[in-house]
Specification:
8 strands, NUDIX_hydrolase_CS, Nucleoside Triphosphate Pyrophosphohydrolase, NUDIX_hydrolase_dom, about 25% helix, 4 helices, alpha+beta, NUDIX_hydrolase-like_dom_sf
Length: about 180
């Protein structure tokens, strides 16, 4: 039986004058630029874990999750909603500090923005902001590079609310074909 752990992370964007930039950490063990993220603790939702991990790993504060391209709950629904991820994927991972054998991360990937790009607390990992052109020169996992490309193509419209997220990503999803 394969062990599965819930993880959560976020593609965090900030607007720098003329362009959007994506915040990435340099993961010391994996030697890659990555979005911030990690394991979901027993006391939190995946959305809460994504925000906590961003704050711990980057030192950023006031992280705001962006609603994904999914329908909302109907008016009058009797339960609290939890922010939905943009994507949920399964990733085979080697042994790590949480489990001494290969296992699967069920990764909940969110999109977020911050107004202030300056970390206000000590970060756990080396952190930096990168525009879309700079990503080509970074050592990244291909899945992160692909999703970042999708998000860079629509982040301005989605964050500012000029376009519904479903409409913004539909052409990119259709292009997978």
């Amino acid at each position: 039986m394969t062990v599965k752990h819930a993880t959560a992370g976020a593609f965090v964007f900030c607007h720098f004058g003329d362009c959007w930039r994506l915040g990435l950490i340099e993961h010391p063990r994996l030697s890659r630029h990555m979005i911030m993220g990690g394991h979901v603790e027993l006391f939190e939702t995946q959305a809460e874990a994504a925000v906590r991990e961003v704050e711990e790993e980057s030192g950023l504060r006031r992280v705001r999750l962006i609603d994904p391209p999914t329908p909302g709950l109907p008016v009058g629904f009797p339960h609290s909603s939890v922010a939905a991820p943009w994507w949920t994927t399964e990733q085979d991972v080697p042994a790590d500090n949480h489990l001494g054998e290969p296992h699967v991360h069920v990764d909940h990937q969110y999109v977020a923005v911050v107004e202030d790009p300056t970390p206000v607390a000590e970060s756990v990992h080396r952190f930096g902001w990168f525009d879309q052109r700079q990503l080509a020169g970074l050592s990244m996992f291909e899945d992160t590079r692909q999703l970042a490309a999708v998000l860079f193509s629509c982040v301005d419209d989605v964050v500012t609310g000029r376009v519904d997220p479903v409409m913004a990503v539909r052409p990119l999803v259709a292009a997978r074909g």
